[in-house]
Amino acid sequence: QVQLVESEGGLVQAGGSLRLSCAASGSISGINAMGWYRQTPGKQRELVAVITSGIGVTNYADSVEGRFTISRDNAKNTVYLQMNSLKLEDTAVYYCKLHQVEGLTTMDYWGKGTLITISS
Fold this sequence. Notes:
With 120 residues, the chain is an all-beta fold. Helices cover 0% and strands 59% of the residues.
């Protein structure tokens, strides 16, 4: 079983910064990708950023490119999301996700989510 524990979000002023972390524990495959998604009421969950294991290929949503940076510590099975120049529209519940190869299939695991509110 895999567990993902996210750091707490919170209230941040527009233009400010916040760093999220997500630690994975349990049966972690060596072939995986960890990422952050976000969701607001009435909308589908959307990708924010993802980073692969190994050489750490990254991918970002256009809306956060240049403002957010995803990184990971493979030894700790932890992924980070540094969020700078936060905007009102970044307000959402942020979820950590682990996508990994397990034998002949793949599995997705999700954190419980953490609320980030950006204030003007």
